[in-house]
Design a protein that fits this description.
Elements lengths: L1 H16 L3 E2 L3 H4 L7 H14 L6 E7 L5 E6 L4 E8 L2 E6 L2
Parallel strand pairs: 1-2
Antiparallel strand pairs: 2-3, 3-4, 4-5
Helix pairs in contact: 1-3
Length: about 100
C-alpha cells in the first residue's frame, strides 16, 4: 500500500511539475554546479508540491556545497524552500 501511495504522489507531482516555467534563462535560474537544470527543477518542484507548498514558476535553484540539499525560490522570489536529505529522505521546509 505504501508503494502504491508513493507512486500516486509521484505521478501527480510529476504531471503538475511538467509545466513549470523558468522566470529567467535556464543558466540564470540554476547555479553552475547543477548539471541537468530542467530535470533537477522538475524533481525539486515535485517535492515542494508533494509537501503542499506552491511553486508555479522557478526563480532560482542553488545546490548546497557542504551538505546534500538545495534551495529553490519560486513565484518571482515570493517563496523560498529548502530541500534537504535527512537520513536518506528528502524533506522540504519553507524558509521565512
Amino acid at each position: 500500500m505504501r508503494i502504491l501511495a508513493a507512486a500516486v504522489i509521484l505521478i501527480i507531482a510529476t504531471s503538475t511539475a511538467a509545466g513549470q516555467s523558468f522566470e529567467r534563462s535556464e543558466s540564470d535560474v540554476c547555479s553552475s554546479d547543477i548539471g541537468n537544470c530542467r530535470a533537477v527543477a522538475r524533481e525539486l518542484v515535485s517535492l515542494v508540491e508533494a509537501y503542499g507548498y506552491r511553486c508555479s514558476s522557478i526563480s532560482f535553484i542553488n545546490k548546497w556545497a557542504f551538505s546534500r540539499g538545495f534551495t529553490i525560490q519560486c513565484n518571482n522570489f515570493a517563496y523560498e524552500y529548502e530541500v534537504k536529505d535527512k537520513g536518506g529522505r528528502w524533506v522540504v521546509s519553507y524558509v521565512d
